[in-house]
Design brief:
PyrdxlP-dep_Trfase; alpha/beta; Aspartate Aminotransferase, domain 2; PyrdxlP-dep_Trfase_major; 301 residues; 5 strands; 5-stranded parallel beta sheet; 3 domains
Length: 301
């Protein structure tokens, strides 16, 4: 134990603070004094904080498009977003896009409510484009046009909402099984739908632990199983083994009319088809083999 660590422990005695033990070899290059900001840097930070504070006030007090300060407020906001965008790191979202070509469409209120394949009674819609997007994904996964249905959601959470709703409608008393590494929306949806949810442990890779899944399934053999699987978990990128899960269901005595599998592809659902090392079509062909009992949703940037 280093002298630095002992002194720190003594200074924290009696406090409620928690701390991590850092080995000496790792501590030496990281324990440094707090460098003092130069006067110029300090004033720059204060100036930026003042501008941000005034901008927030301007935004909250803005009364509409005729406000004289609106252009300045928007311009500063764009500048701020551009600055943050340059150092944006750690979220799986693609920032390399340009929507300028779509600017003429911003003057319209488009409404795509309803089934995109049935059309809409509201003439201001973009359902033709919506179906084209769906066809693109179906072609990517080599699914025939008459073998799928879908719609463009607002994001991964809505995709999970719809998929699990379909599962619950098919099995009103079904139990939802999902790994502890699943997206937080899965557990929120279970509460919203008042479904019994069994959280299954995960392996180090982030994929579901099928040994624990088997034990959970055997404990609830009297009710249908609704399985949420992940094609890329949020924090670890774990991809659940669909074949192993199906084998586990078979081993536990669940026939194909007793389970529903939803594959949450919000992270890697769109990436896997472009990775040559991955047997991309096998995953989907296995899904189709289940005769529609498995759905997948993509969160596309």
């Amino acid at each position: 134990m280093s002298t630095y660590y002992r002194d720190t422990v003594e200074s924290l005695e009696g406090s409620n603070m928690t701390m991590a033990i850092i080995p000496d070899a790792e501590m030496l290059p990281t324990v440094v004094g707090i460098a003092k900001l130069s006067e110029e840097e300090r004033h720059a930070n204060i100036h930026e904080e003042d501008i941000n504070r005034l901008t927030n006030i301007a935004i909250t007090q803005c009364i509409g498009e005729t406000d004289a300060n609106l252009d300045a407020v928007i311009a500063h906001y764009v500048e701020t977003i551009n600055k943050y965008n340059l150092c944006n790191l750690g979220y799986p979202g693609n920032q390399d896009f340009n929507y300028e070509a779509l600017a003429p469409l911003l003057q319209f209120l488009l409404n795509n409510a309803g089934d995109p394949f049935l059309g809409s009674g509201f003439s201001l819609n973009s359902m033709t484009f919506e179906v084209s997007v769906l066809d693109w994904f179906a072609k990517l996964w080599e699914i025939e046009k008459d073998q799928y249905w879908g719609y463009v959601t607002t994001g991964g959470t809505e995709g999970n909402l719809h998929a699990i709703l379909v599962a619950r409608e098919q099995f009103p008393d079904g139990i939802l099984y999902t790994s502890q590494d699943s997206h937080y929306s899965i557990f929120k949806i279970a509460r919203m739908y008042r479904m019994q949810c069994v959280k299954v442990g995960s392996l180090l890779s982030g994929e579901i632990d099928c040994v624990e899944l088997e034990a959970s399934l055997l404990s609830h053999k009297d009710k249908p199983a609704i399985i949420n699987l992940n094609i890329g978990t949020t924090l670890k990128g774990g991809i659940d083994d669909l074949d192993l899960v199906i084998q586990t269901l078979d081993k536990c005595g669940f026939t194909r009319d007793q389970f529903y599998i939803h594959c949450d592809g919000a992270l890697f659902g769109i990436m896997l088809p472009f990775i040559q090392q991955v047997q991309r079509i096998i995953y989907v062909k296995r899904i189709m083999y289940l005769r529609g009992l498995c759905t997948r949703e993509d969160d596309v940037p």
